[in-house]
Design goal:
Order of helices and strands: HHH
Distance between the termini: 66 Å
Strand content: under 5%
Number of strands: 0
Radius of gyration: 31 Å
Amino acid sequence: MFGLGPWEIAAILIVVLLIFGPKKLPELARALGKAIHEYRAASAGIITEKETTKKNEKEEKEEMEKTLLETAEKLGIETEGKSIEEIAKEIALKAKEKGIA
C-alpha cells in the first residue's frame, strides 16, 4: 500500500492518534469511509452516464438513417451502394426539384 511497510503505517497511526486523540479516530475513519464510498458511487455513475449517452447517440443515428432510407424510398431514390451522406444529398436535390425545400 503506497510502498509503506508495517512499521511506517504503525508510526503514522501513532502520530494520528496523538494529534486527534482516541475519541476522534472513529469519526475520522467514518468520514474517510463515506468519502471513499461517495467517490466510487460518483465514478460508477459517470461511467453509466457515458454508456447511456453513447447508446442514445447510436440509437438516434440509427433512427436518422432509417428515416433517410424511408424518405429516399418514397422519393424513388436508389439507395443501394450509397453512403448516408450521398442519400441525404440526393434527397435534398429531389426536394428542391419538387419545390419542397
